[in-house]
User: What shape does this take?
Amino acid sequence: MMQSPLLESAITFYDQIAPFYSQELAARAEYVGSINRLVIEALSRSGSSKIIDIGCGNGERARTIADNLDGVEITGIDTSAEMAKQASLYDINVINIDIAQELTQDDVDSVGGNDAALCLWNVLGHIKEAKRQVALMNMKRLLDPNGQLMIDVNNRHNRAAYGLRPALRNTLKDFVSRNDNRHGDFPISRNVGEKTIATETHIFSWRELLLLLEKSGFNVLETYSVNYETGEIEWLKSAGQIFIIAEKG
Assistant: This one.
């Protein structure tokens, strides 16, 4: 019997896949491109010029977004030193701050005062449950009044992406235990060279994320369900991943 790989911390996991992260983006090009377009449109409407990209990865998406807007400054935040090295290739400045820990005033002074914050591709799902609200409240601290947060996460009720039976099973679990979301924790794995590495991630429900945003002091402005394969905007919430634009309350 093949032994499952040990679960790595998110930092260790992403340090190891950093050189291959462009391939990860390419594999979900339709979805990633659709979210990028929604972000660019929203930033253009709001006139945002100073932006932070939380969990920016290799900086490729930040560069794409910046190149499609005039006069925009994007600063990346990531805990992975190897991702920061990759981001430098895209001319993205990355600051090593753990958004899930209490920020110092120096952190706020150095990175704060932003018009918008991006938290894309289930970055929030790599933060442990006990720290997710801390992370969101830190994001709020880094925003100016009326600053916007743009966030997308995986949807555990997404029948199109995960299959009808798993989605229905997750829906039933949420109905039985409405305030216990631990069944949204799942291992993910990637092949790196000749070995397989794994970490744990969290897949959300709409209700769970909306409650987290409300508790953290954000007002939801727009919601989208985005197909994980085609990038199309779905009218059914169970047919796509979750993308939300919220405003600092």
